[in-house]
Each structure stands twice: as structure tokens, then as C-alpha cells.
Amino acid sequence: MKSTEVNGKEYRIIKLLGHGKGGYSYLAEHDGEYVVLKQIHHEPCDYYEFGNKIEAENNDYKRLRSAGIRIPEMLDIDRKAERIVKEYIEGETISEMIEKGVSVREYLPQIREMAEKARNAGLNIDYYPTNCVVNNGLIYYIDYECNEHSDEWSFENWGIRHWSKNS
User: Which residue range is the domain that position 131 belongs to?
Assistant: First the structure.
């Protein structure tokens, strides 16, 4: 995929950023501006049930915004082609920092604040470190996935285990 369209706008694909349960995310460029273009996929996932993925992304985006979670802005959505364009947040993921042996302890208050905001809104986010990018000292939750709150999947009961290697 060298380029693709979203609602009539052409985006030049630069590289694959990641592949998750719901889709493939690419670094893309349009009119000299970097964005993330997510293409929804329908690959099977043994441990997760999906309904309408594109509508779930849109609804989750709205829920996260409403909860005050710091996330990239959704710039466009193409329901028919199942593509989303969102703001590109430049920076390292918490996962990349952990892999390099860099302590992420200074970011724990921010992720705990996000977790509290999510809990207060009745939500959990996916606390896995690949979903958190640091830009200018601030953590951004770059995925739009969220689920109904469950203590089992909270940051303190699940997420911290993935952040604790070098924190």
C-alpha cells in the first residue's frame, strides 16, 4: 500500500506503525502533514469479541474525549472503507523506553491519573505500554479502545505488570 484514500483525500503511506486486534496503523502524509491512518481488519482474535469495529472506534473516541483522557484527535473517518485518520503524536512509546532500560517511573502519576479519569467514566483503557506515547513530557493514549470498567483490567491490577520492568 503506497497510498490510499479517505473520503476523497489521498494519503501517502510512509511506514507501518503497528498491528493490533482491530487494525493496521500507518504513518501517512497528506499536504505535508504527518497523520496516523488506521485500516480496520477482520482477522480473527481468539480472546476478544468485536461488533462493528469502525463504529466502536468512533464511539470509544467520543467516550475517551468525554472522560478527559489525552488522546490524538480523530481527523477523519471513512465508514465505508473502514479507515480512520488521526493526529500523529511523535515520540517514544513507554514500551520502547522499557526495552531500552529507561525508567518510566516519572510517568506513573500520569497513567494513574488517566486510569482514575477512565474509572470515573466507567471505563478501562488498554494500559499496555505500546499504547502510550510520550511527547514533551506528556503521555498520550494513542489507541481508542476502551471497555466498561472492571477491577480485573484496571491499571493497578493488570497494566502495572507491563510497566514495572524498569519503573
Answer: 9-163
